[in-house]
Amino acid sequence: MDNLQIATPEIFLLAATCAVLVVGLFTQAKSNTVYWLSQLSLLITLIMSLTQLGDEAVTGLSGAYTLDSLSASLKSWVLLLAIGIFLYSRDYVGNRKIARSEYFVLGLFAVAGMMIMVSATHMLTVYLGLELLALSQYAMVALHRDNGRAAEAAMKYFVLGALASGMLLYGMSMVYGATGSLNLKVIADILAGNSEVLSAERTIGARFGLTFLIVGIAFKLGAVPFHMWVPDVYEGAPTSVTIFISTAPKIAAFAMLVRLLVEGLETLNADWQQMLAIMSALSMVVGNLIAIAQTNIKRMLAYSTISHVGFLLMGIVGATDAGYSASMFYAITYAFTTLAAFGVLLAVSREGFEVEQLTDLAGLGKRNALLATVMLLAMFSLAGVPPAVGFYAKLTVLESAVSAGFTWLAILGVIMSVIGAFYYLRIIKIMFFDDPVDELEVSPAGDVTAALAVNGLAVLALGLAPGLIMSACIAAFS
Amino acid sequence: MSFPILSLTIWLPILAGFLIIAVGDRPARKLAGIASILTFLVSLPLYFGFDSSTATMQFQESLAWLPSFGINYALGVDGIAMPLIVLTTIINVIVVISAWEVIKDRPSIYLGAFSIMTGLMVGVFSAMDAILFYIFFEATLIPMFLIIGIWGGPRRVYATVKFFLYTFLGSVFMLIALIYMYNQGGSFAIADLHELALSKDQQFWIFLAFLAAFAVKIPMWPVHTWLPDAHVEAPTAGSAVLAAIMLKMGGYGFLRFSLPVTPDASAQMDTFMIAISLVAVVYIGFVALAQRDMKKLIAYSSISHMGFVTLGIFIAFRLIAKGDASGVALGIEGAIMQMVSHGFISAAMFLCVGVMYDRIHSREIADYGGVINTMPIFAAFMVFFAMANAGLPGTSGFVGEFMVILASFKTNFWIAFLAALTLILGAAYTLWMVKRVIMGPIGNDKVAALTDINSREFWMLAILAIFVLLIGVWPNLIGGVMHASVENLVNQISTSKY
């Protein structure tokens, strides 16, 4: 296969994005052209990516880029999520003074960045993808420029994100110093002692670098103690951007974690297992406990995200193939469950009315039973109650943690998931048991309603047939 | 593979439930009625086609479900599970009758939720795979959470969240135990877990994990406090299903998991278990005596009766130590008998309170008095069920209690003495309530204005009364099907696993 051919979806998407950018200049603010063009580019890219699904693993572009079953399937998920995000956000962005063509264009750039992250097997490519994603996100958070909180959130996100990027780069340079390469495959070979004898000092150098790499990854995932930006950004950003930040990038960050730690530095697993175990435990505890105290629903979901990152890390901690695929399953199911939750928030919001407080959802069960049911399924799934798909995600990561001897972490995890169930139940309580505070009808567009229904149904249906995604996740790590 | 009766009994009500919700309020009642009767009819072959001479699982079905984790969709019933399944489908019919004209607010969702829950509960009793069991066990929380939360009383939110979190907390430990055993033995099949060799320490911790799940569910003292809240706040049918079936999931769990999977730990812990069972029987009996709210009184009486179930189960280990195999079977069969009988009686008691509540909108005993004067037919039913609740010979309430007390006598006089106190206490709190509510002169104007039960309510109570009497005079109706299974269980728990 030709070298460039492995990156055709990315190349197409970037070209299409540039075209959309130009078209955006010449369209009216109210027109939907940019939206439809963006969706079309995503759809074509998705099809291109799906055709690559069964292909043999190929590494090309001087070892910087890899197409394997992990990257092909994660890319497809990222693209599918992006299509959903754009659909749910369309009317929200349109009704507010948010530069709409910029929203979609930045979103497309971010998607391209994620696709590069997912396929990168060279530290520079990883960094390149990451920055493309991050810079687009900083700008997206700031899109609502007249809003003080959005500006504050963007500033915070940018400063902390830049710091984390610096850490990551520093870690990469340390690893380079120790091994003499930035190619993850070569690094793995050297660390395994295959290429040359590695002196003790130089392994220490790699371990030192590893610590900084983990800081950078943890920041991007939002794991405790590098989670400070998450609640502020989730709350301050327009909801259409929050839905973006909270879903697809988690999958990309998972891929980055796997590429760096598992494919590059797996021989140092004794070191990173400990660090990840502590971060996993802290994330679950801090995320779940602080979420209870939140009255702002976006902030609450932010802390909930932090706790789910803890669960996601629990699968990696064991350093087994079964654990990695469990984490992958967790990342995917988490992403589209959260997509449904934020999708409902976007659908309930309308011009002049933002869903901010928990009480804003009061009586949704009476106002729009379908949206409320979708939210209910999403909440039970996030809480890990069977038969929603979130249960299997928890089951698989718990199983991998127990089999790797981290039973204490698994027990902590289930206790925290019970605590977590409390605030998810509270949303259900507010929607179904409380009386509505305003009687205005909630009527999102037909295609949004249909998409939300499918999204909610998927949360349930994949719970009845979890094998569908599970087999792909297992195939990615075998 | 033969005709999948179990799958049909599970999925018919679940799919019907979604259909009921989808069709809206107007046709919901009729559809729910048809679905519940159909489900009952479908479950009948389980009873009549049951081979009571064997302990092997019957009506088996198995499909690979999540092969990478060895999880199968495996169903089957033995003599312990089958009566509970039939009980579930009967209670489902009663639920629909009870809700017929009472529920005005969104009846389609109400009936749909009950229908779905019925399927899930049948799933709990027929799962042969531990994860499948767990999924059904947990999934029942969702409809019950909504039923209490939407149609419950004034403190419904507190009660339903407490109910959910309490039971959720208990069962997640069971999940960890199941995963742990999967890592030891490589299988989630319950039959394989029964065979799995476990050391003393392993058994101890696994036993505790199961205890957390089932003690909360059944519930045992001191983790019973969610039950009075949930029972009191739930709508009538919700209380009935909670008491009649959901509590039995705890007792069933002890028999299906705790005893055969961790027999040595169960034997080691038997004194403790017997002690807290007796606390439930005696102390909670006194607590029931002090209640002013009828539903609360029945709720505490449920806890006290469930104390009998755990007593009957764990007394077994004392008798095994003595080498008295027939006594062991007596205790366990008594426990199962008590579960089934309590299913009918507690449901009937809650429905009786519901009948009065629908008319006067009060559950306070003090708001009633002399109901017999205005509602004579109803009063007859209520007195009958109260007698059954107190364990009157000739009713089903007597059979289980008597068997457990008899088994207790074979071990220790004082255990039997304390257990037998229930005959006095049960009679005291139930009959005293009946005296204050039903008997005497008309208490107030509201009671004077009462109208007697209509034919819907009559048949609802009559069906239950028939079963209570039938089991009372002919216990072998249920006893007959479970001998072989209980014998098998006794064999399992008398052999050490290490």
Question: How would you characterize this protein structure?
Answer:
The complex is a heterodimer of chains A (478) and B (498). With 478 residues, chain A is mostly helical. Chain A folds into 2 domains: 1-264; 270-478, no CATH class. Chain A has helices spanning 8-26, 33-51, 69-95, 100-119, 123-141, 148-179, 184-191, 200-221, 229-236, 239-246, 248-264, 269-292, 297-317, 321-348, 364-367, 369-383, 389-403, 407-432, 446-464, 467-476, and strands at 58-60, 65-67. Chain A has a two-stranded antiparallel ribbon. With 498 residues, chain B is mainly α. Helices cover 77% and strands 3% of the residues of chain B. Chain B has helices at residues 5-23, 25-48, 81-99, 107-126, 130-139, 141-151, 156-185, 190-195, 200-217, 226-233, 236-261, 263-268, 270-289, 294-322, 325-360, 371-374, 376-390, 396-409, 413-437, 445-448, 455-473, 476-494; strands at 58-66, 71-77. At the A-B interface, α17, α18 and α20 of A face α5, α6 and α7 of B.
Radius of gyration of chain B: 21 Å
Helix content of chain B: over 70%
* Alpha-beta classification of chain A: mainly alpha
Shape of chain B: globular
Strand order of the largest sheet of chain A: 1-2
What is the count of helical runs of chain A? 20
Largest sheet of chain A: 2 strands, antiparallel
Count the beta strands of chain B.
Answer: 2
Query: In angstroms, what separates the terminal alpha carbons of chain B?
Result: 36 Å
Class per helix and strand makeup of chain B: mainly alpha
Order of helices and strands of chain A: HHEEHHHHHHHHHHHHHHHHHH
Shape by Cα distribution of chain A: globular
Q: Show unreliable segments of chain B.
A: none
Mean of pLDDT of chain A: 88
How far is the N terminus from the C terminus of chain A?
A: 22 Å
What count of domains describes the coordinates of chain A?
2
Main sheet: strands, sense, barrel of chain B: 2 strands, antiparallel
Kindly report the oligomeric state of this protein. heterodimer
Counting H and I runs of at least 4 residues, what is the number of helices of chain B?
22
